[in-house]
Design a protein that fits this description.
Layout (H helix, E strand, L loop, with lengths): L1 H26 L3 E2 L5 E6 L8 H6 L4 E8 L3 E2 L3 H10 L3 E7 L5 H15 L8 E4 L8 H19 L3 E6 H6 L3 H6 L2 E4 L14 E2 L1 E8 L8 E6 L24 E6 L6 H8 L3 H8 L12 E6 L9 E8 L6 H8 L3 H8 L12 E8 L10 E4 L6 H7 L4 H8 L12 E5 L2
Parallel strand pairs: 1-9, 2-3, 3-5, 5-6, 6-7, 7-8, 8-10
Antiparallel strand pairs: 2-11, 3-4, 10-11, 12-13, 14-15, 16-17
Length: about 425
């Protein structure tokens, strides 16, 4: 009798537990903003050249295109992606990958993003992709987000959407932002994204990052979108107004040398100590250190002649360290660490791609420029060489490649020096 009672009790308990689990799944799920769902993808140079006729025939309705990153990188395939999607009648949105570490840098990135997409005609909201935070706290992250979103909307006249994974939506972004901008949420392997306690619904849902779509070689992100992703009004994004000569300011980055003082640096560039202090949030004007990178703005181009800036990419080789790389490019370890959000300067690995930015003086033999290519899935050196009318041997030499048959998606290759 006791065994029978125990079995009945266990069965009832399991049924209650199952019902509770089903209730939780329903209660803690984030629903779409409308019932009408559009199939979508989001793309960048990582996907290489795309056949948008095949994409459209596969039933894709919306394509989000990476336009830019930081304040100087336009996605290499942005124009090709836009023209291809537009000529095939797809709904188009653009996204920008944020690298800003201050509100001022957020404004600069908004201006750059707006400039890159000027003259285009998207019909989907412009998206902010902010997911690499470094040592920023939540207050700083939300201020940078707010400034970027507001400035971009002001410059373009287009509504915005926040792209975020479920965890960041719940723990990082504020309820204030959630009340002002809709959510395009990323969560893989689920049919419905989890509730984050801030947004009531989603207008975009990135549900898989290894999708396969005809017309695209390799993997692509898969999305679902609702009517809420579309802009309330169309029209071309305005081109930026050229500033008057007196408003033009040059932005340079100066690496502090041994023996430097703010007074000496200010005098060199024709600015004041107070301007440098304010621009770089310096707490103690008497305390700067060798290798520190200072941002300086000047209104007179002649004042920037002592240095200009150049950027390049470097692929870490076996045996490399930051000291050796900094010496090779005439920059500092602290500059490389800051630009690449490196948590441990003693830990870099072969194949890692580092962004290098440095000051270049006239006739400086360290100056580097040229054409670069980001390797896509399925690429080989023969294909890349033919695309750029060069040779495999030349690419191997420029990049010090040990095995010409071994390159990997995401790797940055130098194609030429000019």
């Amino acid at each position: 009798m006791r065994k029978k009672f125990f079995k009945i009790f266990l069965l009832v308990w399991l049924l209650l537990l199952s019902s509770f689990a089903m209730y939780c799944n329903v209660s803690f799920a984030l629903e779409p903003s409308e019932s009408m769902i559009y199939r979508g993808i989001d793309v960048s140079a990582y996907q290489g050249r795309i056949n948008y006729s095949e994409v459209r025939n596969a039933g894709i309705d919306v394509v989000y295109i990476k336009a830019s990153e930081g304040d100087y990188l336009e996605d290499p395939e942005f124009r090709n992606n836009y023209n291809g999607a537009k000529s095939n009648g797809l709904n188009i949105g653009f996204y920008h990958f944020i690298r800003a570490r201050s509100e001022e840098e957020a404004i600069k990135e908004a201006e750059f993003f707006s400039k890159v997409i000027s003259g285009t005609e998207p019909n989907c909201r412009l998206a902010m992709d902010f997911e690499v935070f470094g040592d920023l706290d939540t207050y700083e992250i939300n201020n940078i987000s707010r400034v970027f979103l507001q400035k971009t909307q002001e410059l373009t006249g287009k509504e915005m959407v926040i792209y975020s994974n479920t965890y960041d939506a719940r723990t990082i972004f504020s309820s204030e932002l959630a009340s002002m901008y809709p959510l395009w949420v990323a969560q893989y392997g689920v049919s419905t994204p989890s509730d984050n306690g801030k947004w009531e619904n989603w207008v975009g849902f990135q549900y898989w990052d290894m999708g396969r779509i005809p017309g695209i070689e390799g993997n692509v992100d898969l999305d679902r979108f609702t009517e809420g992703i579309f802009l309330s009004s169309g029209g071309e994004i305005p081109k930026p107004i050229d500033p008057s000569p007196e408003d033009i300011k040059n932005v340079i980055y100066y690496t502090v040398q041994r023996g430097d003082t703010l007074s000496k640096i200010a005098s060199l560039y024709g600015v004041t100590v107070e301007q440098i202090v304010e621009l770089n949030n310096i707490q103690n004007p008497n305390l700067i250190y060798t290798g520190e990178v200072l941002k300086i703005t000047t209104a007179d181009k002649s004042n920037t002649e002592p240095t200009s800036t150049t950027t390049t990419y470097y692929t870490v080789k076996r045996g490399d360290n930051l000291w050796r790389i900094s010496r090779r490019y005439g920059t500092t370890i602290s500059s490389i660490v800051m630009l690449n959000n490196i948590q441990n300067p003693n830990l870099i690995y072969p194949g890692q791609v580092l962004l290098i930015r440095r000051e270049v003086r006239p006739n400086d033999t360290h100056a580097t420029g040229g054409t670069f290519y980001r390797v896509g899935r399925g690429d080989n050196l023969t294909y890349i060489a033919n695309r750029y009318h060069t040779t495999v041997a030349n690419i191997v030499r420029l990049n010090q490649i040990q095995n010409p048959n071994l390159i990997y998606p995401g790797q940055i290759l130098k194609i030429s020096n000019s």
